[in-house]
Amino acid sequence: MTQLDGPELVLVLATLANPHRLRVVAALAGGRNYVSQLARELGISRALLQVHLRKLESAGLVESRIEVSDDGKAMKFYEVTSFAVHLTPQAIATAARTLPAEKGPAKKEPAKKEPAKKEPVEKEPVEKEPVEKGPQP
Known about the structure:
- The chain is built from 5 helices and 3 strands.
- With 137 residues, it is of the alpha+beta class.
- The termini are far apart.
């Protein structure tokens, strides 16, 4: 990798911000491997590993190749690409200048819910019984 522009740097850093993906890159740093074996070594399912491998591949951090084994099975091998990300304040400032301008507020505020209005309940008139008063002085 050469000097990354803003969107590329964001993609690479976001991709590497996941512990599973860091472990995948670390495992592949030792050499290429196929999905089933890599999943066993990392202790995760093949489906989960595939999700992480796709993200790493789309960020340009790993590459894949399908090979046919001696018994005729298609096996997808992955290997880490040669990359280096050198982060300095100046490199970040340079990359930040290439980021697209944000449109609108950075975070959308949740809509405020109005409390549900209660329908007035009609009350039936209650007849009061006359109260007897004792003798008045």
